[in-house]
Amino acid sequence: MGVYYIFQRELRSYFQSFIAYVLIATFLVLAGFFFYTDLSMHVLWSFQKVSFNVWGDYFYDLARYGLMIIIPLLTMRLFAEEKKLGTIELLWTYPLRDWELLAGKYLAALFFLVLMLVLTLVYPTITYFLYDIDIAPLFAGYLGLFLLGSSFIVCGLLISSLTENQIVAAIGTFGLLLMFWFLTWNEAVANEKAINILLNVSLFDRLLTFTKGAIDLKDIIFFFNFHGFFIFLTLLSLTTRKWRGIK
Amino acid sequence: MIQVENLTKYYGPIRGIEDITFTIDKGEVVGLLGPNGSGKTTTMRILTCFFPPTRGRALVNGYDVTKKPLEVQRHTGYFPEKAPLYPDMSVTEYLGFAARVKRVHGKKRKEQIDKAMDTCGIVEIADRLIGKLSKGFRQRVCLAQSLLNEPDILILDEPTIGLDPRQVVEVRKLIKSLSRERTVILCTHILPEVSETCDRVIIIHKGKLIALDTPKNLQEKIQKFTQTLFQYYGGNGGLGNELMGLRGVIKVEKKEPTFSGVQALVVQSEKDEVTLRAISTFITQHGGPIMEMKKISLTLEEVFLELVTEEEL
């Protein structure tokens, strides 16, 4: 139950402070832009026919230019703000476990992510009514975006739990996500072995299979582990209060 | 009821508190007094299960803070020093959230919220945004928050700091009225606040408990007794026991002298002139000429002085 109360408060806070509207609006504008440009490009290249691959580019653009910018701004306040205000001190004296606090905040951000993704469904819907397209691969793509976005959220939660400055939290999260994106770029100088290892932890490369319309259990397990790792670190960071002085 | 035994908390190598032991009975109002940084907040945070102690044991309402934190937290109300609140919520929204997290359910929740708002005098600002409230009102909202779960134990950390004198009087009155049904720990560095509201006082200094008594007794102790260092020439070291025979002398301790050929004694005695004169005459006659006589303050007195001078009212 504690999870639900925290979840509820976080959502209320998002929508009362206008963060929600600004972020959703920005995300939708970006999504609209990518949809339009990706579609036009593909139509141009494939001589008036919508090729399947348009969705691959669309999803990829949404992930790296949409979610990667929006999610750090979404998660920055989750712990940092409470630390700054000191309200977290009160929560820690309420009959509430750390994992309940974390789960409530995670679910609130997740709800937000789902809301944003659902709103972008308008583009595939329009296309569906105009052209004859295959819907099934879209599911895979959206599932990929969802898993990737939720992984961004757990990164953001960890960084936010480490600082009481929201700007530091946002930039730190953004930096971490950038790193996960650039990780496998430097094939030229890294040897094959290193690249293979990096491929295993790269978040963005995991999205590729999904955007092609395929769902690989391996990828799902990867995201699952990724979640576990970051949630574990966040819980650990929350328990540091037990031996560290905070003032 | 609160039982604390040898409570110790270290932040890495830094000592928060060490070996603090006390018992507070049901219905008592106890002041936790000490200069800033003395370990008051550390003690409270352990009692509210914010963090566990490094060593020692604390029982709140019969529950161990390390083993049954949720039980302890269910029966405790806490007012943290800065009265932290969410500025983007209205008073009722916030109290609703706090009550839910504190597991106050159903019909009882509405009742408790109304009761707490009534007690703290914030009914007329129920729908206002917390961010727009004055400091005094925010303090009260935070106090209301601590009452929602009908706590048996109320822990208040500097509840009157930053208020104007009129509000201070009101909040103290409020605390007094709250204390009728519950055990209250009032943490403060303002001495008169304690003598006004508390049955007993715990004084913490540099992380250690240095006194536990009623405010009246403590004040008397401070006013009545003093500690003096005597250094005198003479090889007679057995003066201590004889000094104890004098009227008004409580304790005599031998100390390492700071000069050669000199004896040093620290004498705890009553403060009046007659006693002090009797002691010095006795030493000159039976020991030797006095080369130094110096007042040494008791730790308790030092702390008290510090506390008294910090009162702003």
Quick description:
By secondary structure, chain A is mainly alpha-helical. Chain A has twelve helices and no strands. The two termini of chain A are about 30 Å apart.
Tags for this model:
heterodimer; A: 247 residues; mainly alpha; 12 helices; 79% helix; B: 313 residues; alpha/beta; Rossmann fold; Alpha-Beta Plaits; 6-stranded mixed β-sheet; 4-stranded antiparallel β-sheet; elongated
Structure, explained:
- The complex is a heterodimer of chains A (247) and B (313).
- With 247 residues, chain A is mostly helical.
- Chain A has one domain (2-239).
- The model of chain A has no long low-confidence stretch (mean pLDDT 88).
- Chain A has helices spanning 2-16, 19-45, 54-75, 77-85, 87-91, 98-119, 122-130, 136-162, 166-182, 192-201, 203-211, 217-239.
- Helices cover 79% and strands 0% of the residues of chain A.
- Chain A is globular, with a radius of gyration of 19 Å.
- The two termini of chain A are 30 Å apart.
- Chain B is α/β, with parallel strands linked by helices.
- Chain B folds into 2 domains: 2-220, 3-Layer(aba) Sandwich (Rossmann fold); 223-298, Alpha-Beta Plaits (2-Layer Sandwich).
- Helices cover 37% and strands 30% of the residues of chain B.
- Chain B has helices spanning 40-47, 69-74, 91-101, 106-120, 135-147, 165-178, 191-197, 215-224, 239-244, 273-286, 299-309, and strands at residues 2-11, 14-24, 29-33, 55-60, 63-64, 76-79, 153-157, 183-188, 200-205, 208-213, 225-233, 249-255, 262-270, 290-296.
- In chain B, helix 3 (91-101) crosses helix 4 (106-120) and helix 4 runs antiparallel to helix 5.
- Chain B starts with a strand and ends with a helix.
- The mean pLDDT of chain B is 86.
- The chains are: A mainly alpha (247), B alpha/beta (313).
- Chains A and B meet through helix 1 and helix 5 of A and helix 2 and helix 3 of B.
